[in-house]
């Protein structure tokens, strides 16, 4: 459990910010950040004034969609799933450094009919501001607000407050969209996303909770925390079989371990 954080003070500040905004629509992916935001908004404003909306597309892992539905049921959220079709946008499929901008634009388009005067809120925290995330710019340009940033909360703060509130998402591994597994410049296709989803779902079913399967054509590069290396090697045959079943011919283990957003380094080097 994270400690050293003023959970009570942060909860009060977050509630005040949500109440100040009034009716809100939470972009709800089911991760630790958006889950805390949805829980606080629902508790502070109540269903009807606080709505949680999950954008469903091939870039959302099936287990994440299922967990969003489960959390909504457990917490009594006013929850809606909407379908987005980023792949229909050639600018998104081209997968340049602005892919996330186009993705968030599609999200904001999908949320527009549901707003009815409410403010769209996203679970962006202070740590997110230091990475390459053009999607934040797209959302902000369309009027979205980042309550965690407003009240000065980091990722550790989010996990600490979630733990203090007893939310099971407090230590949930980060799960970025599946398109983030595809190197910039490699087109994002439905087949690619399905292969990544199948490989990751299969490995998660084996018990590897935190991982990424990076897509390099016929080659899959598996990233897991350093502590899981020995388990991957010990169960090598099953790991290879699982990834082969997803359509990859070659299976590699990245010796640098799990690094969220590591494909963004190619943008700074370019």
Q: What would your notes on this structure say?
A:
The protein contains 12 helices and 7 strands. It has 270 residues and is of the alpha/beta class. 46% of the residues lie in helices and 12% in strands. Helix 1 crosses helix 2 (32-45), helix 5 runs parallel beside helix 6 and helix 9 runs antiparallel to helix 11. The strands form 2 sheets. A 4-stranded parallel β-sheet has the order 3-2-1-4, with helices on both faces. Strands 5-6-7 form a 3-stranded mixed β-sheet, covered by helices on one side. Strand 2 (50-56), helix 3 (62-75) and strand 3 (79-83) form a beta-alpha-beta unit.
Element-by-element helix/strand order: HEHEHEHHEHHHHEEHHEH
Biggest sheet, spatial arrangement of strands? 3-2-1-4
Q: What is the overall number of helices?
A: 12
Tell me what portion of residues adopts beta-strand conformation. 5-15%
| End-to-end gap | 39 Å
E-strand count = 7
Helix content: 40-55%
The biggest sheet, with number of strands, parallel, antiparallel or mixed sense and barrel status, is:
4 strands, parallel
- Which parts are unreliable, with pLDDT below 50 for 5 consecutive residues or more? 266-270
Radius of gyration: 19 Å
Average pLDDT score: 91
The class by helix and strand makeup works out as alpha/beta
Q: What is the molecular shape?
A: globular
């Amino acid at each position: 459990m994270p400690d050293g954080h003023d959970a009570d003070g942060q909860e009060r500040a977050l509630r005040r910010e949500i109440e100040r905004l009034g009716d809100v629509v939470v972009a709800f992916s089911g991760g630790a950040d958006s889950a805390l935001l949805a829980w606080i908004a629902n508790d502070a404003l109540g269903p009807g004034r606080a709505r949680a909306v999950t954008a469903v597309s091939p870039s959302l892992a099936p287990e994440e969609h299922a967990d969003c539905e489960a959390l909504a049921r457990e917490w009594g959220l006013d929850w809606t799933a909407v379908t987005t079709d980023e792949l229909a946008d050639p600018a998104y499929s081209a997968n340049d450094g602005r892919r996330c901008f186009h993705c968030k634009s599609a999200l904001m388009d999908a949320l527009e009919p549901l707003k009815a005067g409410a403010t769209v809120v996203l679970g962006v925290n202070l740590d997110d501001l230091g990475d390459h995330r053009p999607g934040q710019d797209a959302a902000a340009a369309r009027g979205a607000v980042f309550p965690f940033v407003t009240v000065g909360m980091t990722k550790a703060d989010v996990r600490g407050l979630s733990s203090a509130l007893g939310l099971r998402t407090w230590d949930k591994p980060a799960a970025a969209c599946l398109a983030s597994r595809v190197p910039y410049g490699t087109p994002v296709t439905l087949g690619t996303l399905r292969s990544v989803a199948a490989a990751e779902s299969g490995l998660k079913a084996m018990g590897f909770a935190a991982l990424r399967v990076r897509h390099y054509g016929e080659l899959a590069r598996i990233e897991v925390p350093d502590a899981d290396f020995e388990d991957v090697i010990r169960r090598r045959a099953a790991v290879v079989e699982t990834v082969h079943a997803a359509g990859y011919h070659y299976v590699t283990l990245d010796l640098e371990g799990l690094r969220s957003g590591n494909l963004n380094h190619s943008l700074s080097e370019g």
